[in-house]
Amino acid sequence: MSFDLLVKNAKLPDGRERIDIACRDGRIVAVEPGISGEAGRVIEAGGRLVSPPFVDSHFHMDATLSLGLPRMNESGTLLEGIALWGELKPLLTVEAVVERALRYCDLAVSQGLLAIRSHVDVCDDRLTGVEALLEVREKVAPYIDLQLVAFPQDGLYRSPTAERNLVRALDMGVDVVGGIPHFERTMDDGARSVRALCELAAARGLMVDMHCDESDDPMSRHIETLACETQRLGLHGRVAGSHLTSMHSMDNYYVSKLLPLIAEAQVHAIANPLINITLQGRHDTYPKRRGQTRVPEMRKHGINVSFGHDCVMDPWYSMGSGDMLEVASMGLHVAQMMSRDEMRYAFECVTTHPARAMGLEGYGLAPGCNADFVLLQAADTIEAIRLRARRLAVVRRGKVIAQSDPATTRLSLEGRPEIVDPAAYAPGK
After folding, report:
1. Is 214 labeled as catalytic in the residue annotation?
2. What does pTM read for this prediction?
3. For 156, which of 120, 210, 236, 385 is 20 to 30 Å away at the CA?
């Protein structure tokens, strides 16, 4: 039997060791020990971790790499970021957005990030970002699954042409219905926007992903309406609430009612640890709130939680590198998820969980799945997060599209080892 690619002696996220992965015609055809046969290329994993590709279920690609245009966010707040983006929007060109987005996609591939859901602002009547990212989606399709969300950044009703523009964006081919109910002028308008947007998605057979309750206000409770509308319209499994940071400030009694409603409606939750810890609690002195939503509690209720990167070098966040392991690391620290089981769960929050939220087909490490995966310089998923492990090989449809040498350091110390490999410090090694 012959294969296009054969990976030997891999460790899998579920703990299986000395596993081979055989690929043919862009698909995984076998995952088991001791696969024999000829292959166009053989990769010796050497007991290192092979994972399905990283997935970012919440990003803003129309704004990425725009840091400093037209100025910096001096306060570091969410609202100044929104205001700054409003200043930048009239200056955007399709060509510039495409160029920055493609550069970011290069970075993403180098990090083993092969699926991204990007919100794209529809409050610019020119729909510059929409036009640009539709072009980018087509260009990167051979190596990244890019899903686009029609996002009314300035409010569906607060911005006079947002509702019309959102429909225009969907007609142009944008995949998902977005919203931002907490940014409407009133709570009533916010709830009304949730109902209207969910009805639009139901009528068109689309998914929904709303920026929901990205606030420190415990009375921002649009996730309740989102769960209710999901239930009413039969959108189970097709709806995501992103951020949900107000839940960090809600009283426990109300949350004890809310979490079962979210679980019952099968609404996905998307936290954005790097951004939530940066933008929330800005009005606090001390004690300061972390702002990230209640991830461990959601896990106990069976809610599908994923972590998004959200921003990289843009009006809201001046850092970021496209590394979903950095996102997972921040997520588990902020949530104080420090048991071994919880840390493994954090890895799932940047792989299998966002893949489920996005409805990705053929995702995983099983026969029949797309031959998409990453070889990491790590012994297991916990070590991958601890080290932000080097991506030694990134595979898309059975072809290596990115590779790196292992990260090692040469020492010149008498009586000490010549080479230090950070992955050799895993427990038990």
Report:
1. yes
2. 0.98
3. 236
